[in-house]
Design goal:
The protein is built from five helices and six strands, in the order βαββαββαααβ. The radius of gyration is 35 Å and the shape is elongated. With 209 residues, the protein is mostly helical. It is 71% helix and 11% strand. The strands form three sheets. The chain has a two-stranded antiparallel ribbon with strand order 1-6. Strands 2-3 form a two-stranded antiparallel ribbon. The longest helix is centred in the middle third of the chain and has 51 residues, at 90-140. It has helices at 8-25, 44-78, 90-140, 148-162, 172-200; strands at 2-7, 38-39, 42-43, 80-83, 86-89, 202-207. A hairpin with a 2-residue loop joins strand 4 and strand 5. The chain has two domains: 2-86 and 199-207; 99-197. The chain starts with a strand and ends with a strand.
Amino acid sequence: MAVQEISVQDALNRIKILKDRIEKAQTVGIVAAVINGMVGAETIDDWTKRAAANYQANAALIDNYRRLKAAIVQSNAVTRISVGRDTMTVAEAIERKTSIQMLVDFRDVLASNYASVIGGIERHNTKVSQQADQTATAVIGKKEASNVGEYEEHITAYMKRHGATLVNPMGAQQIISDLNDSIDEFRSAVDLALTGSNVVTMITVDLAS
């Protein structure tokens, strides 16, 4: 074993390499069939030595993988970075890269709801406006210069009675806009912030040679 001080980025690179090596090494077993005193083309003694060496090498690879991962997790839990206007631990930033999808989904629901309601109001009011014109014509007659005021009063009163308006006590447009800004700011900054932190943050880990 040897204590090493390496960057988180270096540790991540080593982990990737170790994962590939472990997957390849796990194809070698530690038991075999003996036929006519041989294991395939090898003597029992030669095969036993090779199997033991493979086992020990694979166990060391797995142990190094585990130690590197543990060191990174510990570092991520305490290392703080700035992502846009927010400050958070690396672990929080990594988690938020996944959980931000919930915020995106929430934004989309609010935006869809707003657009649907606005569209419904516009369609309803278009229909009511046509009805208002028809009733004004029936009651007052064709719109002319002499009856414009009365005609418009009728239209206004009819729309007030039958038209649709928006109930928006929380300010949906501003909420949606703020969510857009928050999502875009995080997504545009998080990867660069994480990479920069990984390059300069050092961890100490005890690894097998």
